[in-house]
Amino acid sequence: MKRVALLALAICLVGAPGKPGLLVWASAADGAPSSLFEQSASAMLHRDFADRDISYLLLDAGSGRVLAQQWDHPERPIPVGSLVKPFTAAAYGAAHHYRFPDHECAGGATCWLPRGHGHLDLKHALAYSCNSYFRALASDVRAGQAAAVFHTYGLDTPASGAMPEQLVGLDETWTIAPLQLARAYLDLASRRADPGIRQILSGMSESARAGTGAGVDRRLAGQALAKTGTAACTHGGAPGDGFVVALVPAEAPTLLLMVRVHSVPGSRAAVTAGQMLERLSQRTAGVPPAVPRAPRPRSSAAGE
Asked: Cα torsion for 29, 252, 88, 68, to the nearest 10°?
């Protein structure tokens, strides 16, 4: 056996003294799995996040392999709310030469934020998960155009085509399996060099920094990608559940964490995901809790 095959996979928090670091998943040179890491991470998550109101999937970004999970039937399609928006943006970009519009969100019945988000570009529309922006985007994407892009990410199209409400995540008839969607996000992140994708990932970075996903970035100093969503509850009778997908580090993700929290909005699910990533870095790699954190801008998002 080659010596490199003995290198273990590990998760660690790397940074200069006095500065926050990054979660890094270091893979063995031959891609061999590390049962030691997986057992440790799985045991910690099951112990500290055993609440059945919390569902999660932790994936290796390189292989798409599940490292730890607490999610009943993640292969079964369910409504996932605004987690579809990055793929709607990709479909719009492919149909419009990757030129994304600006938009004025007036709120009211057009968006989850009653007062509106004001003037937005794609980056900030994704960061704040603006329904008004994505309604406008989705209304200018034909069903066939959307289907072609969704298929490239391994996503099934809505049963009734691709109506605007479905592409915004507001129509519960478009269901996607959580595991399928997690791997679609990994595919999206791997395409950052493709036209339009860097703008989408920039929006997810802004979400983690100061948008609806800001709860993720508890100690990662802007080095995470996140997208939140709120969708109908399919397992406990609540009005809705909060979802978040988080990828770290932002520029070259090595881990993906998808979290669903029962009966809360997506922004609250992001806080739980941030706690999980923080515990992983502390308890798996032995990083002390006292590592200073960079100040994080307060998010104006309270819901989606």
From this structure: 60
> Does a structural domain hold residue 290?
no
pTM listed for this prediction: 0.86
Q: Which domain holds residue 97?
A: 3-285
**What is the number of domains present in the chain?**
1
Give, in order, the Cα–Cα distances in Å from 200 to each of 9, 22, 132, 165, 227.
29, 21, 17, 20, 10
Angstrom distances, CA of residue 287 to CA of 43, 49, 253: 17, 19, 20
d(CA 282, CA 12) in angstroms, rounded, equals 8
Q: 10-residue block means of pLDDT along the chain (304 residues)?
A: 36 44 48 65 93 96 95 96 98 97 97 97 98 97 94 90 90 95 98 97 97 88 92 86 96 96 96 93 49 36 60
Report d(CA 183, CA 67) in Å as an integer: 13
In a domain, 298, yes or no: no
